[in-house]
Structure formats: structure tokens, C-alpha cells
Amino acid sequence: MERILHSVTLDRDKCVGCTHCVKRCPTQAIRVRDGKAVITDARCIDCGECIRVCPHHAKKARHDTLAALENYRYTIALPAPALYGQFHNLDDIDVVLSGLIKLGFDQVFEVSRGAEIVSDATRKLMADGLLKKPVISSACPAVVRLIQIRFPDLCDHVLPMKAPMEVAAALARQRAMAQTGYAPDEIGIFFISPCPAKVTDVRFPIGDSHSHVNGVLSIADIYPKLVHEMNHLEEVEHLSNSGLIGTSWSFIGGEAAGLLNENHLAADGIQNVIRVLEELEDEKLADLDFIELSACAGGCVGGVFTAENGYVARARITRLRKYLPVSCNRAEDFGDLRALNWSQTLKENPALHLAGNISDAMRMMQQVDDVCAKLPQLDCGACGAPTCRALAEDIVRGFAKESDCFRLREGCNNDR
User: Fold this and answer.
1) What is the model's pLDDT at position 416?
2) CATH no. for residue 42?
3) pTM for this predicted structure
4) Rounded to whole angstroms, how far apart are CA atoms 322 and 5?
């Protein structure tokens, strides 16, 4: 499988170099050079903010298509619980799951089942005092990558546990192998995702060397086909096996509520996430037990791969939950609880470092300060960088020049 650092891509033909994305990127991964946006691979966390704010639709994210199902003898759909909020007047999750079977999948395994297993395991670990508090959820890969890049001192607060998608995929493959006798590589598992961060998480996993998922489909991409199949169902199969706790992971606060612990905080939207992490880094939130963070406004229902307004989707799922049991899955369903943990320690991503060693970094930092002192401190973005300091860093790295700043350029012209 191709290893990629990010899934967000640029359509150069549509880009006009307007700098909307430059100003909103939380890791300063985007610059405008020669009239077009450029994404720095190592800095992109796939939060989708550039896709949301681009008025020209020049940003998009790669994902798999239904054609990828043909590469496997047996296929399994892993629907994110956010999928259930896309449909008007839905009162039975089994309608959606039966529609996925009609769409061409051999089996469906709900990610909400994995969510309930993770919730139960987290409750047990927190009760035993085995996690550093406040514990930061690891469910949103964009947030975890943000922490690795901008807040590395908080890495040991991140819950070192597989995401519900991975838990569901591992169980689904194991059971499919037992049922069919097929080899692991003959079984294709596809996550139906609300966001591009999961595309990267499959190809470049956090906390593990490989993913149990073979492909990621966009909710918006399969939505029209799925609606058609749902509208022409002759029979609705009983396929759902999850409850209120797992389904609630689709919107912000759902994961934290599933811990049955009121001493928590939940924040959504990348700018709000950054403010919470800054306060946590300043030790202002040390009295909390758990922090749930989502890069998307509203949680997963607000992802850029969704077909419906996130707030509408949340209201629909809230109504749908009243028909569900509290929970149907326990941590023990996964077997050995230690297998739920990451196999690798979360480490800092040095993408923002000026150099590979401290002496060179200190020297370059002084150069950045010197260059920055010449700049007007307007942070206007006209140079193609988000701030004057970011431009100064680009100049020191050799990616830009002082004349890129219109004020300095005007000064040079006046001197003549």
C-alpha cells in the first residue's frame, strides 16, 4: 500500500493564489508561490480546513472508490456512525446497513461497535490509574498529528489506544476469516469516512506499523448510490449490533460521555482545539480527567467528506439514538486488552524544526529574529506566507526572499 504523508491535494488549475488557506492552516503548511498554493507534505495534518475555506474549490482529498472492491474476494464495509446522520427520516440503522450490502459489500461491521469497545477499555484503564491525566482522546488523527507537530510535550497525554476504526477492522477480518476460510489478503475492509484524515491514517498509521483497513471511501462519494439502494430494499436485514454509546461518537462530546465521567472537556473546530491545547500546555487544565478534541466543527458529522450539514446530521443521530440500547459491546470482546494498545510510542514530528541539531537551530533562530525585525508585522499574507515570522523563516531556509514583502519591496524602490 502506498505510504502518504497527507491526503489533501491541490487542483492548480482552480487555485488563484488567494491565501485563504494560507491564513487558516493550523500548522502553517501552505504557502502561495508563483501565484499557486503549495502544501508542505510533512506539515499537513489533513484537518480539512483548507478544503472548507477555499472559495474556488481548489483543495480536495484523495480517497478510494467502489471499484476497489473488485480487488478482493470478500469485502466488508465499516460505516462510521456519522453516516447515519446523512439520511432524512431514518429510524432504523439496519436500513443503512442493508443498503451497504445491496451496494456490493459481503458484510458490514459497524465502527460504533469498535467505539464501544474503546470506551469500555478506556474506562477500565482510567479507573485503574494507568493513564496520565488529563487523558487526550486519540480518536481524531488530525488532532494527534497536530499535537505531534505543535504540542509535542503533550504526546504522553494522548490515549495510546487503537481508534474504533482499527478495532472494528481487526475484529471484522478475524471473524470473516473464520466464516469464509479466506486468507487475510483476500478480504478487503473499507472504512466509510467523514474526513480525509482517515485516508492518511490508513496509509501512514499513528501508533502502529500497519492498518487493518484496506481502503477508505468518502461518505459524499457513495451517498447517492447508497440512497438509491436503500430506497429499493426488498428486505431489511437485522445487522446492527451497537448502541447509544457507540453511535454518539459521531458528534463532539459523545466519546467523553461514554466514559461516564463528568470531569471532562470536549472541544471541536481546529482553532478551538488549538486554544485548548495551549491552555493544557500552560497547565491550566490539569484538574480534568479527559479531553475530547475534534478538528471538525461538531465532531465527525462536520467532516468534509460528509453529504449533509453537520448540525442537521447531529440532530438526526440524536433522534435516532432513542431507539438504541445503551451499549452492546465490551472491551473483552476484543480478547486480550493489551492488543488494543498502540505498538509504538507517540513521538514528536520535527516538521517545524529549523534544523536537525540544536546549534544550527539556534543560529537560524537568530537569523529569523533579525529578518523578522525588518518586516512590518502586519501578518497580511500578501507575501504568500501566513505571518511575517513565517516569511522570515522561509527566507532563512532559502524558500523566499525579502522582496516578497511588499513593504520591503516598496522601500527598495523608493531608495532608487
Assistant:
1) 44
2) 3.30.70.20
3) 0.94
4) 40
